């Protein structure tokens, strides 16, 4: 019993040090597990649509990949949010958002007159 108690204390002290991931490692894990299930697909789609988390850039923005992951997960709210965000940013003059819409249109995922988006 004495050894069990000591082992529990040591594991409590040492466990968190080994279990913590850096933001970069967490990002890599989320991307690696993207196809495991709907929750993982949405998490990975969020990373692709934003390029990472605030202060942590860990993946290149890829709106097509984000759209595809959301669609596979059946996450209509995420798809709508992505499209609304891209359209709003494109209307504000952000070229990367307009290019994202063009790429989605070229793949046949959306049917919008991108030329009407400023």
What features would you describe in this structure?
The chain has 118 residues and is mostly helical. The chain is built from six helices and two strands. It has helices spanning 2-19, 23-32, 38-50, 63-73, 76-91, 95-106; strands at residues 52-53, 56-57. A two-stranded antiparallel ribbon has the order 1-2. Helix 3 runs antiparallel to helix 4 (63-73), helix 4 runs antiparallel to helix 5 (76-91) and helix 5 (76-91) packs across helix 6. The longest helix is centred in the first third of the chain and has 18 residues, at 2-19. The radius of gyration is 20 Å and the shape is globular. The N and C termini lie far apart (71 Å).
Strand proportion: under 5%
Widest sheet, order of strands: 1-2
Fraction of residues in H or I helices: 55-70%
Number of helices: 6
Oligomer: single chain
Structural class by helix and strand composition: mainly alpha
**Poorly predicted parts:** 1-18
Shape: globular
Mean pLDDT: 83
